Amino acid sequence: MSPLRKVLAGLGAMASIVFLGLLIVPGSPAYLEVQSRIALAIWIIMGIIFI
């Protein structure tokens, strides 16, 4: 894997973590309520199962 691809993969991972943080941090404009968190958890579990 080329160094450029590694850097791009790292940037993508950091962006994902930032957006996930926006969904989880209370007081954030994008904060998820309980029902949305349950749906997110199910979505993540399904993604892990079907990889």
TrEMBL record:
<feature type="transmembrane region" description="Helical">
    <location>
        <begin position="7"/>
        <end position="28"/>
    </location>
</feature>
<protein>
    <submittedName>
        <fullName>Uncharacterized protein</fullName>
    </submittedName>
</protein>
<keyword id="KW-0812">Transmembrane</keyword>
<feature type="transmembrane region" description="Helical">
    <location>
        <begin position="34"/>
        <end position="50"/>
    </location>
</feature>
<keyword id="KW-1133">Transmembrane helix</keyword>
<keyword id="KW-0472">Membrane</keyword>
